Amino acid sequence: MDRIRKIMQREADVIEYACNNLPEEDVKKALDLVVEKIRNDRGIFIVGMGRTGLIGECFAVRLVQMGARCYVVGHSTERAIKPDDLLIALSVSGNTVFVNYAADVAKDEGADVLAVTMNADSKIAEKADVVVVLPEPEEIILRTFSEMLMLSFLDGFAAQLAEELGVDESDMWERHAKIQ
Asked: Are 93 and 118 in contact (CB under 8 A)?
């Protein structure tokens, strides 16, 4: 039980550090970009690999519940990305090969790219139109702490988006999956 508590406390510490050091100007740019895409009924595509990809799928569910046309890259229901759509690229390292490939394709097709990463000096940070670099303490014991930080950030980001879009819980519940 001690190990469980220790890991949970350390994750909470990492999230608290990020809350206190959040790059507010970059987060505001990201919020404005996503709000614009949703209001203009543009497609929003989410890409991430591994556990980060699963976190991206959780975020995609929230966007759909807000009424966004959202697609997870690689899923069979994904449509072609078009000019003025948005790719949200999630990568802890910022150097994940497939995530960067997806960003290249999105840019080639005229879409915007929003990157969420922990690495300001990464390939994805260089090519994105808007970048949110999530702050981490220097000492990260387990890589899962970074993933939990990404999940926590995207949960908060989704809540802020809903508020800015005027979407409340009842609106989201109406779009919640009924067959599951």
From this structure: yes
**How does 11-43 read in b/e, with b if 16+ C-beta sit within 10 Å?**
beebbebbeeeebeebbebbbebbeebbeeebb
Sheet of strand 130-133: strand arrangement: 69-72, 43-47, 86-91, 112-117, 130-133
Position 99, amino acid = V
Model-wide pTM > 0.85: yes
Cα separation, 34 vs 42, whole angstroms: 9
Q: Contact 43/85 with Cβ under 8 angstroms?
A: yes
pLDDT tens per residue across span 88-135:
999 999 999 999 999 999 999 999 999 999 999 999 999 999 999 999
**Rounded CA Rg of the chain:** 16
Counting as low any pLDDT under 50, the low residues of the chain are none
Report d(CA 169, CA 118) in Å as an integer. Answer: 30
